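Q: How do we represent a protein-ligand complex in a form that can be generated token by token?
A: Start from the inputs.
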Amino acid sequence: MGKIVLWILVGLAAYAAYRFYIISVRRQERSRPPAKDPSLPEVILKCDHCGVMLPQSEAIAGQREPAKHYCSIEHRRAEEADQ
Ligand SMILES: [Zn+2]
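Then emit the structure tokens for the protein with zinc ion bound:
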């Protein structure tokens, strides 16, 4: 009889551990920010100095004119020094 009670307790402990694990995994998934959809095309911009095309995430915005974009700090410097 004592063994049956022991096995029931072991089963309950395993079930509780399983529930705790599932809840913690769900909580982690919920707290994670949604991943950026890689299927969405990235905006491609043109360097206002040399004309090279580059993704928006790599472009450097102009200091004087934020609407302008450059492929590198050197090109931004060169373009803004000309003005
Ligand atoms: Zn450039």
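The mean pLDDT is 89. The first strand starts at residue 44 and ends at 46.
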